[in-house]
Amino acid sequence: MEKAWEHSFVKGGVGVIIHLESKLSEVISTEILVSKGCYALLWYKKGKPRSIPRLKEKDKSGILYIGKADKIKSRVGSLQKTILNNSSSILKEPIIQGHQTLSKKFFRIRDNFEIDDFKIKIWNCPDDDPEEVESFLLESYVKQYAELPPLNGQYGKYELDGIDLKCNISIDLLNP
Q: 102, 123, 136, 163: which one has the fewest Cβ atoms less than 10 Å from its Cβ?
């Protein structure tokens, strides 16, 4: 049986992978839920990350979206609602709330996915600015794959060489 969540510890913070439909308060500690950090929407198939063709090379981690959060619980909860509310193929138009742009993007491609195919990676880096962590993750992704994750629309606020993080994180989810 597949685990509902997995822990991978990083210097200065913790990374957690959960199923999209997980109740956050049941799988993540309260300390992490109220903290700031970053998260990614991941595409899995049969318990493994789905490879996504990108310009430069395949993304074998299945990263669809990277975002930041001042409070992980509210922002990741908003991501969950956005995906779940826009997953029905009988909808005539997107339900826009929380992640407004992501609501529209996901609505357009929803018929290509099953809800069980999604996981969320959460990086808790309490000593770093979430905007810098998000920039680091986005710019690292672009450096490796020559484009943004499929559901992201904007680059990070900071250039990769201008970011000095206290926690040790990586976009390589296969080797956390």
A: 163
